[in-house]
Structure prediction request, 93 residues.
Amino acid sequence: VGYPPHKSGNRKKLFDSIKAEPVKATIIMLEAPHKLVRTLVELQEVMGDIHLVLCRELTKIHEEVRRETISQSITHFEKTTPKGEFTILFHLS
Prediction:
């Protein structure tokens, strides 16, 4: 998917179209740290509290991989300022 659209309405349309896909697939998107929590909140509104994999700074010294629900990610990053570029992965089934 790449980076989701900047505008909230367009992001939600993208998430709605992903959810409506009849094909089982793993969705991969990128997000900047200052937009991460907002994107996760909107993703949760559309998809529910699904499990995802949230990767930070892949292939770099501070690489981090988190496997959890969207709500757990939101809670973590509301307390800890997101740093680095993020890759968000989730599976549609």
User: Anything to note?
Assistant: The chain is about 40% helix and 30% strand. Strands lie at 25-31, 51-56, 64-69, 86-92. The radius of gyration is 13 Å.
